[in-house]
Write a structure and sequence with these properties.
The chain has two domains: about 5-195, 2-enoyl-CoA Hydratase, Chain A, domain 1 (Alpha-Beta Complex); about 210-240. Helix 1 (about 30-45) packs parallel to helix 2. The chain is built from nine helices and nine strands. The chain starts with 5 loop residues before the first strand and ends with a helix. The strands form two sheets. It has a six-stranded mixed beta sheet, with helices on both faces. It is an alpha/beta fold and about 240 residues long. The chain has helices at about 30-45, 75-90, 110-115, 140-150, 150-160, 165-170, 185-195, 200-210, 215-240, and strands at about 5-10, 15-20, 50-55, 100, 105, 120, 125-130, 165, 175.
Amino acid sequence: MPYRTITAEVKEGRIGFVTLNRPDRKNAISIEMRKALSDLLRGWREDPGIGVVIFTGAGDTFSAGFDLGEFKNPALLAEIFETSARYHRDLWYFPKPTIAAVNGPALAGGFDFVKLCDLRICSPGALFGHPEVKFGIPPLWTPLRWIVGEGMARDLCFTGRRINGAEAHRIGLVSEVVAAERLVERAMEIAGLMLEAPVAALRQGKEFMLNCQSRDFESSFSVEHDVVFQEFLLKKAAEALGKK
């Protein structure tokens, strides 16, 4: 299905590649874009041709955040909320690995977007920050806390200060800083490394990650060790023995 605010294609090797495509508006996330992202992700959930999804932005920006112009229209407020609640969850709960290739500023809602991906890499010109706190909007901090730790998450959410790619790498927000001209290529390489594993294993691993955030050691270990042994290792051993 064609979309006006994003472009989506399937690259060789089961890689879905999505570009936020409103460069004239710094890829501001509008109602239409949120609907497009939700529709696309829901369609790709069970698509066997998709194993990993990469997101980037058109032009020199990943995303400047939500399209604030829409908030000026009272008739849109309910739809803004509904599409926001749905799209954030569709991204967070997407059952396959996601990579944000951050090619420029990712601010406010754009910062939230990259926090909800599984892995982040960026170019040296990337910027991350929550300027919305200056306007009375408390940022989404729990996913950030899981990535960079509680102290640094509080720092970024309370101050609204912007950090560049180098600092983002230092605090663990991104795993690599890559030259702008190689950013997409590197994201594709990482996706390829992931897809050397069976998609079923990637999906199961992501399910563990999503479900074990608040568990203690014993309850997490019983899933990540005991279930893996029963559902994967022992089954594979039995299959191997059966072929002898």
